Amino acid sequence: MSSQPERRLDAATLLTRLLPEVRTRARGLLGDLEGEAFVARLEQVHFDVVEPLERLFAERTDLEALVRDLVGVVLDAAADRPLPLRVLDRRREVDPGWFQRSRMVGYACYADRFGGTLAGVRERLDYLAELGVTYLHLMPLLAPREGPNDGGYAVADYGAVDPRLGTMADLEELAADLHRRGVALCVDLVLNHTAREHEWARRAMAGDPAYHAFYLVFPDRTLPDQYERTLPEVFPDIAPGNFTHVPEMGGWVWTTFNDYQWDLDHSNPAVFRALLATMLALANRGVDVLRLDAVPFLWKRLGTDCQNQPEAHLLVQAFRALTRIAVPGLLFKAEAIVAPEMLVQYLGAHDRYRPECDLAYNNQLMVLLWSSLAARDARLAATALARLRPAPASTGWVTYLRCHDDIGWAVSDVDAAAVGAEGFAHRVFLARFYAGLFPGSFSRGALFQETPWGEARTAGMAATLCGIEAALDPGDSADDVDRVDDVDRVDGAELDAAVRRLETLYSVVFSFGGIPLLWMGDELALRDDRDWARDPAHAGDNRWLHRPAMDWAAADRRHSPGTLEARVFALIRELVEARRSQLALRAGGETQVLVPDDPHVLAYRRRHERSAPLVALANFSDGWQSVDLGLLAGAGIADPQHVHSTRGRLDLGQGRLHLAPWGFSWLTSR
Ligand code: GLC
Questions:
Q1: For all residues of the chain together, what is the average pLDDT?
Q2: In the predicted model, what is the mean pLDDT of residues 25-51?
Q3: The whole model's pTM is what?
């Protein structure tokens, strides 16, 4: 909300003034060796600290005093950092690409739904080790408000763990266990908003002006009405509008999400300072990756949709530079579910590279995989993915198929038109297809937040959306009355096809480049939770369909040959294994989308400067398909070598590579 200030404070001058006192304090607190390393990091990033802070806050506060204060916060955190975590930092500074390795495999789950409590999660680590997991994302686990809390995204206390899950000490022990096993821990940091029960909000309601200024409050509807003209609604059904009248606050509070989630005023440097301290405190408990929740929403500007504003990026750049001075091993992951042309900026790809997040969800890939599966056609995916700018070499995507959120059908009109489709019609088709409302659909998911004009988002577990649920139980259940009744007949063939769809989708997730992230239960083909609405705190939000409790009886069946769970678990394990040895699949390498002569096949080449290329192909149809070997030769693979595939071998013939129905293949050259 600030405009460019007249006077630009020179970062180098500021550093020169600051350095002597910082060096003395740092050496005093950390010893000569670590103290000097701290100073070196400050020198290294000072530009990345000062420039964004100046643009964000110089109009509102004395920049030099702010920088001095924030460096003090960072130094205190460095001094508090436990030794085992400093050892990890040391390793990661030596090996900054540690998270880009092809052996990285992520797993995301709710602590309570997976293990009951944090202590319970610790007891289940062997299960994750069996899968080959090296990155564990636990869904929001800080103390939320009582009652509805948006799955933990309404935080009442950043300094405490949800008491139902355990304590901060439990979190530390879990992190230590994970580190011993070589697993990184990712935790959510909800920084766009707090719960209205957070202490900051309580103090604001009690009349403390300093905390009132933490939130965006308007005395009447004048400005809210102006903002609303260009603001979309995130939850139009369950939380319409973006402002909530709160008499104790003297007006309308900005609430992008639910009415109990109050947006913070990020133009206030005191908010920045408080969140910086929160990040450092979590890192000092052993958190390796902070998932920056809803990061596109941080900055508001009249006349815009208040997403992806340049200042939102500046905030993350400043947070990153500052946290890195104390905790060089900490990563940021952007949760930016935005249009493809807005996405890669969260990885720092601006006019020049400006270090920002290390990881970002590849929402485009996720949407396009589901789109290809429903349409049985990969051309739209190829077109849109080819347009996606590459991730900067020191960063990586998080590739995924499902998560705790709905699927928003972010297919652009431009991409659709490029393959002769109509964007709106295709988006409506996808929502209806996955809700089982389209003739011949194999999916049994649900519509989420349907708009009056017929577009909707999608809820459902991957196994359900791939047709595994329909294949196992063709009969309509009570709540299925609206569904088409000509679902495919259940037999082995239908289940086979559905399992293959799941495997092939995951084959892309595991080979497109980045950290593949499994959503809890997909490795066992867990289906939708039909009892989701029983919990009154979940009522109305059918995203709970795809947030089932872990079915440990099903998990036990992974060792019983012939069961669905054994089959799917083994398929995922094989993907993990096959990926591990492929240097070409390291994050930071490049992905080039290829154009095969078969519209059903998605093909791309992975390359890393130190490896032979790897080509991956996926067949999005229920028939055999094939591609000309010239495609592979053109991608640098003259003599294709099998790496991994549906059938465990290469099917070559008549100058073509053949792909089984819903099948995939990974190839490399000698
Ligand atoms: C993110 C979360 C989503 C939540 C929202 C508000 O988008 O993934 O579940 O509702 O932020 O915190």
A1: 95
A2: 97
A3: 0.95
Which two three-digit tokens encode residue 448? 């989420």
Is the pLDDT assigned to residue 153 strictly greater than 80? yes
Give me the pLDDT at residue 482, please: 40
Q: Which residues of 469-483 are buried (b: 16+ CB within 10 A; e: fewer)?
A: bbbeeeeeeeeeeeb
Strands 446-448 and 457-459: antiparallel
Q: Is the pLDDT of residue 144 over 50?
A: yes
Residues 599, 606 contacting (CB under 8 angstroms): no
Counted residue by residue, the chain has a size of 670
CB proximity list for 453: less than 8 A, separation 6 or greater:
none
Atom in ligand 1 nearest the alpha carbon of residue 151? 9
Catalytic residue ranges: 293, 335
Closest CA to 345 of 295, 417, 306, 301: 295
What pLDDT is attached to residue 639? 93
Please calculate the CA angle 408-467-599 and round it to the nearest 5 degrees: 70
Question: Which atom of ligand 1 is the closest one to the Cα of 192?
Answer: 12
pLDDT reported for residue 670: 83
**Residue minimizing CA distance to atom 12 of ligand 1:** 153
Backbone dihedral region for residue 605 (phi beyond 0: left; psi -120 to 50: alpha; all else: beta): beta
Span from the CA of 598 to the centroid of ligand 1 (angstroms): 38
